[in-house]
Amino acid sequence: MGTTRKNFNGPKDTTPLTDEEWKRQEISRANDIRERTLKIHFDTKGKSYNRFDVGLALTQLVPAAELEHLGPLSRNAEWYVTLRSDESKQKMLNAGEVVVNNF
Question: Which CATH class is domain 37-102?
Answer without folding.
Answer: alpha beta
